[in-house]
Amino acid sequence: MPEPKDKLWTRDFIFLTLTNLLVGISTYFLLPTLPIYVVRFLGADKSQIGYVMGIYSFASFIVRPLSGYIVDYLGQRKIYLYALGFLVIIMTSYHFAIGLTELLLIRLLHGFIWGLISTGGGTIVANILPPKRMGEGIGYYGLALSIAMAAGPTIGIWLMENLDYNGLFNGAAILALAAFLMALLVKYPTRAAVQKRPLGWDSFFEPKLLFLGVVLFVISMDYSGVICFITIYGLEIGNVGLFFLVFSISVGLARTKSGRLLDQDGPTRVIAYGFGSLILAYVLLTVFRDPVGFLISAAFMGIGFGIFLPCLQAMAFKMIEPHRRGVASSMVMSSVDLGQSCGVVVLGWLADITSLRTMYLVSAVILIIPMILFFRYVMKTYLTRMHEMGLQDG
């Protein structure tokens, strides 16, 4: 029996979301545990931890622009399944990282594969979701990764402490294998034949998404400031662990609600909520230096950041032709990666010459730039595309 045209929780969407969850948990197993492995087991210096963790992010960032072309023109199903299968091999190969050189090579390959999986998965999900519920669907799909970011490190530490590193790497490999098997059950969407073109500028870049990418870049710079410096800033104010708990819950709630609001009412109102939440959060953080204000700020930050990525990603998929969604996915994620990388440097420099309090206040003011770009340029392109598709949205 065919499923309703606008049904969200289809069999394939559930399998893809669960695949995203399993891949995320297996990857985040290693986030808090590898630094300990590097120092205790490999006997490396603490300064070398940065190389081990950083080369993964670097590889992921480098491969993202190319991954959009690969996914669009070499086949979504093929690339996604190959990447997931290779992830199983990589997770197993951590057993053989008996030296820093071997571990760096494995991390490099892991980063490349993560770039392909995250781009391919997001593109496939966009192609199976009903257009009128894309925002809601992208929100739930991204929520799986948010859950993985919360659960993965906790489970990973438990495995390391109770089953040693072999148990940790076995657990990561088993989850990666489960993700691969889950992905085999998906009935991938068929697309009209797309003429393969040689690599060129348009293989990596979509002009319609330029301003949307800049908006995401600036917002991601702000996000890196929260992640990297809030622990130091919060030492004199309140419980940092409780801050991240409130922040994570708010992100999850925002992801589930904002996508539906985007689909029903268009982006104007929900994106305005996002900007308003972030600006209010930074003002609260700098003005009210007490535990209550600290946690209220965490709630508004979570709402703001929880709104932007799924909503802007859904908008990006709607703003271009279906056969270009791989490029759209890579542009969105590259903007996030680059923004977070630059944000750590720029905001760190600003905090060093002024103060963390000033840095957060400046972060609020900086948001005026993406706000203007969004409502002046991104919305214009978006509404033009909706008109071409015969959809009323705004």
Strand content: under 5%
The number of helical elements comes to 13
SSE pattern, N- to C-terminal? HHHHHHHHHHHHH
Instruction: Give the beta-strand count.
Output: 0
Q: Low-confidence stretches at least 5 residues in length (pLDDT < 50)? A: none
Radius of gyration over C-alpha positions, nearest whole angstrom: 21 Å
The coarse overall form would be: globular
Based on secondary structure, the structural category is: mainly alpha
What is the fourth-level CATH superfamily of the largest domain?
A: MFS general substrate transporter like domains
Q: Given this structure, which CATH class of the largest domain is correct?
A: Mainly Alpha
Task: State the distance separating the first and last CA atoms.
Answer: 34 Å
Helix content: over 70%
For this structure, the CATH topology of the largest domain is: Growth Hormone, Chain: A
Question: Can you tag this structure with a few keywords?
Answer:
single chain; mainly alpha; Growth Hormone, Chain: A
Explained architecture:
By secondary structure, this protein is mainly α. It folds into 2 domains: 11-184, MFS general substrate transporter like domains (Growth Hormone, Chain: A, Up-down Bundle), CATH 1.20.1250; 208-389, MFS general substrate transporter like domains (Growth Hormone, Chain: A), CATH 1.20.1250.20. Helices cover 80% and strands 0% of the residues. The chain has helices at 11-28, 30-40, 49-74, 76-93, 100-128, 134-184, 210-234, 240-265, 267-287, 291-319, 325-353, 356-366, 368-389. Helix 7 runs antiparallel to helix 10 (291-319), helix 7 packs antiparallel against helix 12 and helix 10 runs parallel beside helix 13 (368-389).
